[in-house]
Amino acid sequence: MKTVSLELVEIHELAFSCLMQNGADKLNASALADTIMNAERDGSHSHGLFRLPAYVASLRSGKVNGKARPSASSLTPAVIRLHGDNGYAPMAHQIGIPELVKATKTTGIGVMAITHVHHMAALWPEVEAIAKHNLVGLACTPYMPAVAPAGAIKALFGTNPISFAWPRPGNTPVVFDMATAAMAMGEVQIAARDGHSVPLGTGLDADGQATTDPQKIAEGGVLLPFGGHKGSAIAMMVELLAAGLVNENFSFEAKEGDNGDGGPPRGGQFILALAPDIIAGAGWEDHCDRLFDRMSGMDGVRMPGDRRHKNRLSDAPRKINSDLVKKIRHLMA
Amino acid sequence: MKTVSLELVEIHELAFSCLMQNGADKLNASALADTIMNAERDGSHSHGLFRLPAYVASLRSGKVNGKARPSASSLTPAVIRLHGDNGYAPMAHQIGIPELVKATKTTGIGVMAITHVHHMAALWPEVEAIAKHNLVGLACTPYMPAVAPAGAIKALFGTNPISFAWPRPGNTPVVFDMATAAMAMGEVQIAARDGHSVPLGTGLDADGQATTDPQKIAEGGVLLPFGGHKGSAIAMMVELLAAGLVNENFSFEAKEGDNGDGGPPRGGQFILALAPDIIAGAGWEDHCDRLFDRMSGMDGVRMPGDRRHKNRLSDAPRKINSDLVKKIRHLMA
């Protein structure tokens, strides 16, 4: 793969300008460019510039509001409803996360039910933003049908990612962010683009047969949930929390209502926050460090989030796929 | 396997009497006998009478308080702390669940942090008790080290079950209750007892090698998390929510503090409740039925909890392992 080296500020500028030239206003373009730059910074290429053409497609088609002004309201002291004004999710998070943090600092637990957003980014930014305030964050969202429930050969669930951040004051949080599919569709798409195979169990082809060819999974095939019927149950839970409880589209409804422009469908998100200061009381940080010390002391164990946080420390330029950069510049012409 | 047929009331009476003769008082023996009978009713043999000898062992050793009087207090309108008085978890749930339901009906979301309980039952009873009130329930608990984190060959996590119930007014809830181990230790023990093998990926032997022999996993070996590093992340989340956040023992701490009598160690539990009436608003039942209809209409898909709920409908006697009944009667001699 041919790459070009771009400084983080250049990545931001590229994304920001491209979004501005395609219908976003400064606030929205800036929120989304932050998210894209931070993904590249952390080495999450599948959620970085790779997504920009799709973001642009939905701005151009008018499906997504590039000038969104999300609004938050409290249903109870612990429940916040956030209307995304049909914009991209990172804009909604900028408005809503501070409200969720404020509520959770008082009530010990808070939930934010987000509707009318288009979410195609990673889910760690929102839970890390919560963890910065020494709160625990958990987030999940459906998408469009891509994953077959355990036992089936047709898609019903989205790749339905779930993210979780545990705060470690004075240290990087422990964070995981994972598709409940055996592999994220972004990863499958990148494997297809780069000509790599994927492990057996990742998905089925159009005939319902197991395959290691990412192209066959991405086009006409279907992903499988991670971990068989247990992962399938977790994927179902994501549909129920982030669509049923939030009162937004299930993955299958999101697809039915989508215009097919290639960008993310309208959907919702479930974000939970918990205050260990209130629930556990004093001393929770040291207590949890005992678990983390045990884990990281075991041969072969990698702490969730560590690789991303290590990548983050480097301010060196990032290597970006050349064809992708060309494609993005073409969108700005 | 030789079995005897016992009516549900006989199962209850057997468990109740055995517990009463071994140090439990009426309230505690009754709560635990309900749980045991309901497990046999639903076909969950691994959480029924099979557990009774271990329950008795911990009453006899004095580790567990058979006369527990759990007490609940509100830390905030949405956070309940429940001290289990060192008794068995079902007794604590009888006291705490009504408080959690009451709080959640007002605040829309509630969490109960349970400490000082000994939990060796299934986790669906507590979430089904929540779902009866048209609330969503989610519960998890650590145990003793039995599961190797992804990449490791030594145990650190418990089998760390997680349960979830979604209410369906006028219908049985959709419920899953699963170990985050590839297989619950109770199932592995039953496979070992009955001479069955287990699937590859269930666990490792004492040398860290993959095996299909449940005996080698149960004695000196280790279970693996379901779904590789993703299931391992969920197992870690259970430790953090049900020990770190609750301020109780992690699995490894539970073992260090345990007297080795074979019964469940002292630990905590995290229970979350959510009110769709408040968060989603009117119409959520029909909306979610659309998802359930899609799922159950797919070839090969089984709705989580359905098999248990079908078993429940039968009032026929249940077949119980004869040796187990003999063993229990011996404990009453």
Q: Strands of the biggest beta sheet of chain A: in what spatial order?
A: 2-3-4-11-5-6-7
CATH superfamily of chain A: Malate/L-lactate/L-sulpholactate dehydrogenase, NADPH binding domain
Strand content of chain A: 15-25%
Shape of chain A: globular
Summarize the biggest pleated sheet of chain A: 7 strands, mixed
- Average pLDDT figure of chain A: 96
- The number of distinct structural domains of chain A comes to 1
Q: What multimeric state do the chains show? A: homodimer
Count of individual helical segments of chain A: 13
CATH topology of chain A: Ribosomal Protein S8, Chain: A, domain 1
Largest interface here, residues on each chain? Answer: A-B, 69 and 68 residues
Could you explain how this protein is built, in words?
2 copies of one chain form a homodimer. Chain A has a 7-stranded mixed beta sheet with strand order 2-3-4-11-5-6-7. A 3-stranded antiparallel beta sheet of chain A has the order 9-8-10. Chain A has 333 residues and is an alpha+beta fold. Helix content of chain A is 41%, strand content 19%. Chain A has 13 helices and 12 strands. The longest helix of chain A is centred in the N-terminal third of the chain and has 19 residues, at 89-107. The first copy, chain A, has one domain: Ribosomal Protein S8, Chain: A, domain 1 (2-Layer Sandwich). The model of chain A has no long low-confidence stretch (mean pLDDT 96). Chain A is globular. In chain A, helix 1 (8-20) packs antiparallel against helix 2.
